[in-house]
Amino acid sequence: MKMSNCLNGYSWLMTFLMLCLVARSQLATDFYSQTCPNLLQIVRKQVQSAIKTEMRMAASLLRLHFHDCFVNGCDASVCLDGSDGEKFAAPNLNSVRGFEVVDSIKTAVESACSGVVSCADIIAIAARDAVLLSGGPTWKVLLGRRDGLVANQSGANSGLPSPFESLAVITAKFVAVGLNLTDVVSLSGAHTIGQAKCLLFSNRLFNFSGTGAPDTTMEDTMVSDLQSLCPLNGDGNITAPLDRNSVDLFDNHYYKNLLNEKGLLSSDQILFSSDEAVATTKTRVEQYSNDSTLFFADFVNSMINMGNIHPLTGSSGEIRKNCRVVNS
Ligand code: HEM
Ligand SMILES: *[C@@H]1O[C@H](CO)[C@@H](O)[C@H](O)[C@H]1NC(C)=O
Ligand SMILES: *[C@@H]1O[C@H](CO)[C@@H](O)[C@H](O)[C@H]1NC(C)=O
Ligand SMILES: *[C@@H]1O[C@H](CO)[C@@H](O)[C@H](O)[C@H]1NC(C)=O
Ligand SMILES: *[C@@H]1O[C@H](CO)[C@@H](O)[C@H](O)[C@H]1NC(C)=O
Ligand SMILES: *[C@@H]1O[C@H](CO)[C@@H](O)[C@H](O)[C@H]1NC(C)=O
């Protein structure tokens, strides 16, 4: 009796230690090397073809990975259709893009290796390829995520940062998913590519809420350019480049813009110009504006951190057949 108790205790301890090991190294770069050896080439080819059709798609795929990972972890929950989907949450509605491209990658992957590769991993690889094909850095993507069984619309509404929030609130949302201030600054550099709608920054151009706009931290010619592009009572869906210097090129000009008061969103410019930035993010912005090698290295590290947010592994979740619906 005593002996078997002891053995049970021992094997329980071993199981616990092994679970700890598994939990620390859930994802691996070679996860599909046996089950889907051509995965990376297949995804690369599809991303290449998508951005040949529309260069902006690189930015959209990168953002899709971010919006996936910040809500219930990187589990492709963002892809689920249905009225309770994350697609209909405020930060995503009429804004997040790239689902058709994820579908076409998934179709190509399924025809090579059926039922093996998760949608969450496809999005992570596509985001990496999007950065590389835009002139940015590359890295080995950790793989082995599984797909979630539920969408979380309220989680998307509360967990995704808004461009109108303070640096403290945005930072808290990063900290809530295990990221830190370095990640806030380096990942914001994703705004070196892509576009944003007028309705997400026109409060900086016009004094319609008594805020005293135009924003004194936006450079004068940029204010007047954007006032023409985004007139009062105009179409809020018109878009402007997040990086005025090189909208399709992944470089460190986003940070140079911030030094010149040419950040598009309030959430961009506050990284350099706000009072809160002095003790938190301003020095980082200066460093990245001056040293693109440092920016690239930190961006890669932060992308890996973001890709590690609460992955489903083992027997959690599933490998979805269609990225838009849970398996029946
Ligand atoms: C720091 C907090 C962040 C805020 C407040 C924010 C906010 C926004 C907003 C408002 C837009 C424009 C959406 C639209 O017009 O429909 C946007 C676009 C974009 N965001 Fe962010 N973002 C943040 C962080 C990130 C991160 C961490 C990434 C990726 C690592 C990212 C990648 C992008 C990209 C690439 C675009 C352009 C998408 C396109 O052109 O389709 N953002 N972001
Ligand atoms: C949705 O997200 C919120 C905030 O992260 C979390 O507290 C909640 O448990 C999530 N709900 C589901 C059903 O996953
Ligand atoms: C954030 O985490 C990284 C590791 O990913 C670390 O190198 C960096 O110093 C941390 N930054 C802050 C401000 O704590
Ligand atoms: C902005 O509008 C408020 C009233 O809504 C007014 O008091 C203020 O002077 C205006 N500021 C500028 C810079 O026009
Ligand atoms: C933007 O486009 C969406 C979808 O086409 C539409 O529902 C919405 O009314 C438009 N918003 C503005 C401000 O024009
Ligand atoms: C940029 O680097 C140069 C030398 O490498 C240095 O003199 C300068 O102060 C730096 N500027 C900023 C804004 O960090």
From TrEMBL:
GO molecular function terms attached to this record: heme binding; lactoperoxidase activity; metal ion binding
InterPro entries for the chain: Haem_peroxidase, Haem_peroxidase_sf, Peroxidase_pln, Peroxidases_AS, Peroxidases_heam-ligand_BS, Secretory_peroxidase
Co-factor binding details: Binds 2 calcium ions per subunit.
SUPFAM superfamilies: Heme-dependent peroxidases (SSF48113)
UniProt: heme b binding residues: 191
Gene Ontology CC annotations of this record: extracellular region
Site (Transition state stabilizer) location in chain: 63
Disulfide bonds: 36-113, 69-74, 119-323, 198-230
Signal peptide per UniProt: 1-28
Pfam families for this protein: peroxidase
Keyword terms of this UniProt record: Calcium, Disulfide bond, Glycoprotein, Heme, Hydrogen peroxide, Iron, Metal-binding, Oxidoreductase, Peroxidase, Secreted, Signal
Catalytic activity: 2 a phenolic donor + H2O2 = 2 a phenolic radical donor + 2 H2O
Binding annotation for substrate: 161
KW Iron (keyword) present: yes
Top-level class of the enzyme under EC nomenclature: oxidoreductase
Recorded family membership: Belongs to the peroxidase family. Ascorbate peroxidase subfamily.
Function of the molecule: Removal of H(2)O(2), oxidation of toxic reductants, biosynthesis and degradation of lignin, suberization, auxin catabolism, response to environmental stresses such as wounding, pathogen attack and oxidative stress.
Record's protein name: Peroxidase
Lineage of producing organism: Eukaryota, Viridiplantae, Streptophyta, Embryophyta, Tracheophyta
